[in-house]
Specification:
- With 299 residues, the protein is of the alpha/beta class.
- The protein has 2 domains: 251 residues, Spore Coat Polysaccharide Biosynthesis Protein SpsA, Chain A (Alpha-Beta Complex), CATH 3.90.550; 36 residues, no CATH class.
- It contains 9 helices and 13 strands.
- The strands form 3 sheets. A 5-stranded mixed sheet has the order 3-2-1-4-9, with helices on both faces. Strands 5-11-7-8 form a 4-stranded mixed sheet.
- β2, α2 and β3 form a beta-alpha-beta unit.
- The longest helix has 18 residues.
């Protein structure tokens, strides 16, 4: 019986560094156990060959927008229709997963029929193929804590959820900002437990550049990001991890601890009525600056 289906829509494998880190990521997912299956979705160059090499299932038929970028709704639907697992997990193609990922999803399922698990990542420079000999996970965790950095609580690079949820998703595109924020908003507004699993789940993001995007620039100002913002209902629906209503600590879902960043975020959201002018917008910008300074975010 399959415990969890992990699915992803990786980038093209044409860039040597992207090729290396995506192959690392896929192998880390496969090391979660024989009762975890992996789906690779999309028709990006090199994806079919990677799926064949690693013996995982490949679904090239994801729907796309006019620019050829896969749509999140289609990716999630393909995974749900072709999996028999109770738990599904979307994971970005550059993310390394460590043992415990599946167990924490199952622990959450024991406590709630509907939920969304999300969380922060550890950013780490990795430039070579990883050694997956015994003890690889402990070595990776130690390396991430020593050389890496915990990413600020913005969006999420993974989503663990029961197959009964997230069946209707707007026309959001993968690999562009905003879609992950909308998913968090959707879970909070249902309401299901929208759970920040950072205290219980460690994941590692392999740092990379943005050479695959126009101009080699990050996706925040990309026109497809702006389309995601519009499709998701506007900036007021761009939730982050600080907006989750639960957290997972030692495998237990509980109300989140009261922290200064959460308080600033709550005030920021209440001060922003969806209008970018006037005194309330000025207060929103000030609160945002304070929150980002506290989180160590320059942007």
């Amino acid at each position: 019986m399959t415990r969890m289906t992990i699915f992803s829509a990786p980038k093209p494998f044409t860039d040597p560094h992207i090729n290396t880190i995506q192959r690392n990521a896929i192998q880390s997912w496969m090391h979660l156990g024989p009762d975890v299956e992996v789906f690779l979705i999309g028709d990006e160059e090199g994806l079919a060959q990677a799926a064949e090499e690693f013996g995982v299932r490949h679904f090239p038929q994801a729907a796309t927008n006019d620019a050829g970028t896969p749509l999140i709704g289609s990716i999630f639907q393909l995974a749900r229709e072709n999996s028999s697992a109770s738990l599904l997990a979307y994971v970005n193609g550059d993310i390394l997963l460590l043992p415990g990922f599946v167990e924490m999803g199952e622990r959450a399922l024991e406590q709630s029929e509907r939920f969304l698990l999300v969380g922060q990542r550890w950013d780490l420079d990795i430039t070579e193929a990883m050694d997956f000999s015994p003890g690889w996970d402990a070595r990776l965790a130690e390396d991430a804590r020593r050389r890496g950095a915990l990413h600020p609580p913005a969006g999420s690079d993974y989503f663990i959820y029961p197959r009964t949820v997230l069946q209707e998703i707007p026309e959001l595109t993968v690999g562009r900002a905003g879609w992950d924020n909308w998913v968090i908003y959707h879970a909070v507004s249902q309401p299901w437990p929208a759970v920040d699993a950072t205290p219980s789940i460690m994941i590692v993001h392999q740092n990379h550049d943005y050479a695959h995007l126009p101009g080699g620039k990050a996706h925040y100002d990309h026109h497809e990001t702006k389309a995601n913002l519009e499709a998701g209902g506007g900036e007021q629906n761009m939730y982050m991890l600080l907006d989750t209503n639960r957290e997972l600590v030692a495998g237990k879902i509980r109300r989140p601890r009261l922290r200064m960043m959460r308080i600033l975020r709550w005030l920021e959201m209440r001060a922003n009525p969806g209008r970018q002018h006037g005194l309330r917008w000025g207060l929103t910008r000030r609160l945002r600056r304070w929150r980002r300074k506290l989180a160590g975010v320059e942007r």
